[in-house]
Amino acid sequence: MNHSHDLARQLASLASEKKAENICILDLRSLSSLTDYFVICSAPTDIQVKAISNHIRDEMSATQKPWNVEGTEYNSWILIDFVDVIVHVFQTEIRDFYNLEGLWADAKTETISADEG
Asked: What range defines the domain where residue 32 resides?
């Protein structure tokens, strides 16, 4: 595997540790110069979205700080940009509305099961 895929898997695993739901990794390398991978996950409440985001940032702080973090006022969608990998932590309803997986339907998708976290 490559470094950015290893990072994506690590970030997905961290999300899983905080009970993120429907975790997937989209491989965008052949589709966009924006980033190599998206890690997309969701949670039913804004409090859990924030907890997942904070856990990822806290656990990564010793080795790799995000280049940028963006979030909505009520934590319904938090984006954590590690340059080669961008993590999207959504509240479930917001994820369904924006449908990033549909927008990037041509991307190779890797689903992360709960027991991989």
From this structure: 3-109
